[in-house]
Amino acid sequence: MISLGLIWVDGSGAKSSESNTPWGPGGMGNGPASSLQALRHAMLFLTGPVYSLAQSPYSVTDTVSDITADRQSLLQQRDQLNAQLLRMQEEQLRVAYLQAENARLRQLLGSKAELPSQATIAEIIGVPPDPQRAAVILDKGEIDGIAPGYAVVDARGLIGQVTEISKNISWVLLISDRNHAIPARINRTGVRMIVGGIGSADRLVVEDLPVSTDLREGDLIETSGLGGRFPVGYPVGLVSSVESTESSPYLQASITPSAALLKAGHVLIIPPPMPEKAPELEQNIDVNEGES
Amino acid sequence: MRSGGLFMTVLILLSLVLSVFHLPEVFADWFSYWRPQWLLLALVLWVQQVPQFRGVLFRTLFAKHATDDGTLTRRVLLAVWLFGFYVDALLGDPFGLNGAVFASITLYLMVFRDRLRLQSLSQQMIMIFMMVFLSEIFRGYIHNAVFNQVWDLQPLTLAVSSMLLWPFYHWIARRFIGASLGR
What we know:
heterodimer, A: 292 residues, alpha+beta, B: 9 helices
């Protein structure tokens, strides 16, 4: 009898968490923090050691290969990295100039200057075993200044966003998840669109773009910065195929993600940009963004 | 007697780690469809041994002042249900999902304990298959409702791989707990 009661409580627990869980970009940050979220927060903190243990074979292999790496290859690697650093520094010089120019032009236009974002480097310490869940677990959490809604990128492009955090670890929903959608735009033309995940790590889809849109294979798709979650201008992927059928008023286009969604080891966590528009407009966009 | 408890503790910790362990990318996709449900197998083993545990920890947690079997059952149910919350956080499931699965399996195992003891290994394997299959269907239903996930063959593959692993658990239980409990 008690067990039946338990299961009933359970069911309602699952239901209430269903409505409260900040899963998906739409609902996050809008709902009040519930006691269930507090419980999850505390429990997530306790799951840290288990993930570290599960990751330990990989960390041990890394350490061993670090120890046994020979001098010659290390020197070679250092030379390569030095060359890369030089190139990056040169680019950085131009970025500083462009940033100053950008700020001046924005001042002329009367809009606020965008603050440069502070990125945190994090390591991926776990992957949920369910093949249908496109998510990863990072080794940074609340104490490192991370909050739900932060964007996660690797060296080549957008990876996902932080959905749940505890003190020391955070869950990241990947852009390839079926519940994820990104407000994006075509780099070449500036046309805005929404890019959704379909559960496959090497393909994203464009949602509801009219057939008349100028979209070609090889176009770079980047974040548009609308919705206030992802900073503007991070690469999402390259258009791999564009098809239009007579029966549909929309283009069927697929996108290959720029970021290595499955292979990334280290990632950057980036706070959302400062809101420039009215908050109620932001929320509206947020809701639209949530559907997949 | 102590070693039985120690063995179960190690087994449960190992199951927790194994249930979030992922293989390198090459095998990851294949393995994730055939990963055995380590936690459910450990739970089945644990529940089947519950009446025989006489250790200090077990007594303090469950059997102290337990006047009858019903009280013990309720306490064990509550314990596995609460443990389910931790697993929910670990696997990123909605809260209460794993608790419901664990508690219902525990209830079944404890109510039909005497009958299950008489079963042969192949019958036990069929039982494991049914339990994992049903729990995965339940989990799939909740995931479908909450996370918008599609249905696939996962319940079937997970049940088969868990079932095929059971003889190994059976052997281990006999080898370690059976010996330590003097059965």
